[in-house]
From TrEMBL:
Protein task: Essential component of the SCF (SKP1-CUL1-F-box protein) E3 ubiquitin ligase complexes, which mediate the ubiquitination and subsequent proteasomal degradation of target proteins. Controls sulfur metabolite repression, probably by mediating the inactivation or degradation of the metR transcription factor.
Keywords: Ubl conjugation pathway
Domain SKP1 component dimerisation per the UniProt entry, residue ranges: 118-163
Family: Belongs to the SKP1 family.
Matches recorded under SMART domains: Skp1
Organism (species): Anthostomella pinea
Protein name: E3 ubiquitin ligase complex SCF subunit
């Protein structure tokens, strides 16, 4: 965190306190708008972030600190720049090398906090992880239990045959 930048304090839903520089916190459009609308009142206490757990909030603020001086990209611009896994910067790839439950919690937090770049990269990472994999391989990778009865699963496969790879 930059020592010369003002800081704000955030409180997760499990009461974990996370400190972030103001430029980093402004990577979140939600927090930015809160500060714009209520900044005149000052924030004597921590800003509550009710839908995000402490470990995830800390991970998200790590992202925001890294990109604190970056402007929010246009979605179309992002789609043009990042089409393949090779186009994802190394720091971003390393950031997302986490357990799948943390990965999905970070993506959910990015959506809630409205951090477009984090959300876009997170979704791209997951898309790359499941690309060209079978349903069973995806279930195995993410620990998803198959709760379909065989007849129901077969019906879905038949109805969505267009989405299956020919064998």
């Amino acid at each position: 965190m930059a020592n010369d930048a003002p800081t704000i304090v955030l409180a997760s839903n499990d009461q974990v306190i996370v400190t972030a520089s103001l430029p980093a916190a402004n990577q979140s459009i939600l927090i930015h708008n809160l500060l714009l609308n209520f900044g005149d009142m000052g924030f004597e206490a921590a800003i509550p972030i009710p839908n995000v757990k402490g470990d995830v909030l800390a991970k998200v603020m790590q992202w925001c600190e890294h990109f604190r001086n970056e402007a929010q990209p246009d979605q179309d611009d992002f789609k043009q720049k990042v089409k393949t896994p090779e186009e994802i910067p190394e720091w971003v790839q390393d950031y997302f090398k986490v357990e799948s439950d943390i990965l999905f919690a970070v993506i959910t937090a990015a959506n809630y906090l409205d951090i477009p770049l984090l959300l876009a990269y997170g979704c791209r990472i997951v898309a790359n992880m499941i690309k060209s994999k079978s349903t069973q391989e995806i279930r195995n990778q993410f620990g998803i239990v198959n709760d379909f009865i065989p007849e129901g699963e077969e019906k879905l496969r038949t109805e969505n045959a267009w989405a299956q790879d020919p064998k």
